Amino acid sequence: MAVTQFEQQVKYGLIDTEKTDSVEQGLLSLLLANENISDEDSSAHFAGVLRVGFLKAKIDDAVRLRITGQAEGDPHLIFLCDNQGRLITGWGNRDHVTVSGDDLRIAPGDVPPVVARAIQDPALKNVDANRTELATSFRFGNDIYLCTFRYLPATQDWIVGIVVPRNFYLGTLLQIRRQVLWASLALIIATILAGGLIIRSAVRSHSLILRGMARMNGFEFVPAQNSSYLRDIEEVLIGLEKAKTAMRAMSKYVPINLVRQLYQKGEEPVLGGKTSELSALFTDIKDFTAFSETLTPDELAEDLGRYLQVMAEIIQSEKGTIDKYIGDSVMTFWNAPEAVTGHEILACRAALRCREALQELYDSSDWGHAPRFETRFGLHRCVASVGHFGAPDRLNYTAIGDGINLASRLEGLNKYYGTHIIASESIQTAAKGVFEFRILDRVAVKGKTEGILIYELLGERIEGKSRPEWVDRYEQAFTSYQTGDFATALELFEDQVEDSPSIVLASRCREWISHPPPGMWNGIRVFESK
Amino acid sequence: MLALMLGLSLLFYQVLKGWEQTILQSSERYRDLASREVA
């Protein structure tokens, strides 16, 4: 309502002065205060009063500017104040104007609390003609408010203030930031958990690999059921199992001790050997060819497999190196590739144990009605070349030399004497403290002219137990035989009709008695065949 | 991986902080224009 209209309405009683709003009350009080001033004098005081009323309404309209352009919901609060923190614009009909010194100001009691807080901001005092703009922020309640002050020139140091909650601008962004924060946190936790699981799995798998490698280093090639969720490690574990399988397969073809030695030294087998003292053992099955003709190939393979399994286990447990299987024959030596103390004794014990174990095998139900093999053994200690022989790309770890051949010949002599285990003098000399031997003969095997003494291995020597009488008698007879006293020897040999060597030598004595040996008698039986 | 996550989080923080600064500066200009309008 224009002030002139207001003045006229008051004058004619059209306005109930008890019900006017605060602005109208202010105007009314000013009008009443000046009612004694004549109309003719109106240009002085009333002009000023009318101007105040006009500016108040106009200024109030000005601060109702909608910044966002929205009719409702604009959170910007615009106000005018001075740098003393006194409001110039009001907030509706309930505002009332107060006199503050020479100025009319809006009483702060009815203004929005946040505006009341803004006009109390210390920054407001810094806004003046020298610093016309200032932006600040403050916390009010649970929110942060942004506030802009602008100095109005050509006024009584009035300042425009605009206050708005920061969330009006940043609400969406802060929401996104919170979402990103929580998502990141969840992702980090998930990453830590997943990373922990992966690391745990990797450590476990790594440990499996290390344990597997340690077992392989110790030449333990037992299959293991290891797996990992990590593909690379799974491949390594599979590779290890394959390597173990290869090693298991290899160990069935080559002496495991040899492979272990090469593995531990990190060497590859190369063509060549070295001279070593060995104890060699050859075995063979009597009349195996005849047996094989009565069995099917599968039966033969099965029976021979069980037979050789028993032999191999015992030989290996006695630290022997199985060089090769030659059909039904086994070639074994001791003291290579690893040095073995008392290898002659181990070789003798292996032969005796094999003989005993084979008897147990034949008596067992496993063997059934299969023919019982009769095994012959030949033992000799010699110096031989042992190492890798063959073509450079296909090597065979073996021992070669005259001594090895002699061991094979001794095995063959069992056939002639009807014995099972024949040992050379070198074996007897080394093992006679542990085993009981009897001398068999002085022989020159095929291809040799020098005679050697051969012995039959009878068994373990038992402390305090004297030798069997028949052994002493045989050796007495053999002594007579060696001196050429064939008649005495024959008499003694003939007393032992159940002893095959005695029968053999008795027959030979008879032959020499009827046909005395030509030249000087040396007691050597020369064999022209193997 | 943890370092990568922390690095990404820092990057996100920097980007969001930049957005916030940009928005606040824009809003400041916005209010400044409004105060000029009132003036």
Task: Please tell me about this protein's structure.
The complex is a heterodimer of chains A (530) and B (39). Helices cover 45% and strands 22% of the residues of chain A. Chain A has 530 residues and is of the alpha+beta class. In chain A, β10 and β11 form a beta hairpin. About 5% of the residues of chain A have low confidence. Chain B is 95% helix and 0% strand. Chain B is built from one helix and no strands. The relative contact order of chain B is 0.09. The model of chain B has no long low-confidence stretch (mean pLDDT 84). Chain B has one domain. At the A-B interface, β5, β6 and α5 of A face α1 of B.
What is the global morphology of chain A? rod-shaped
Biggest chain contact = A-B, 30 and 24 residues
Question: Count of helical segments of chain B?
Answer: 1
What composes the largest sheet of chain A? Answer: 9 strands, mixed
The fraction of residues assigned to DSSP E strands of chain A is: 15-25%
Helix proportion of chain B: over 70%
How would you sum up the global shape of chain B?
rod-shaped
Assign the CATH architecture of the domain at 271-465 in chain A.
Answer: 2-Layer Sandwich
Query: What structural class do helix, strand and pairing data of chain A support?
Result: alpha+beta
Q: Give the quaternary arrangement of the chains.
A: heterodimer
Low-confidence stretches of chain B: none
Strand content of chain B: under 5%
**Helix coverage percent of residues of chain A?**
40-55%
- Tell me the major beta sheet of chain B: none
The CATH first-level class of the domain at 271-465 in chain A comes to: Alpha Beta
Cα radius of gyration of chain B in angstroms: 17 Å
Report the span from N to C terminus of chain A. Answer: 148 Å
Summarize this entry quickly.
The complex is a heterodimer of chains A (530) and B (39). Chain A has 530 residues and is α+β, with helices and mostly antiparallel strands.
